[in-house]
Specification:
With about 55 residues, this protein is mostly helical. The protein has one domain. It is built from 4 helices and no strands. Helix 1 packs parallel to helix 4. The longest helix is centred in the C-terminal third of the chain and has 13 residues.
Amino acid sequence: MNFKNLKLELIKKNKKFKDLVEADGRSRQYLHKSCSEGNGKILKQMFQLLKTI
């Protein structure tokens, strides 16, 4: 689980990072920074959220 894999899954589902941010409710800057730094907890939440949208 890393940011690159998250981006690939977004492409496969024809979604944008913005869609995940809107569904999550936290700021785009915070989520992007956390994901790019490899924050496992945030990445796991983003993957779970991606499955639901």
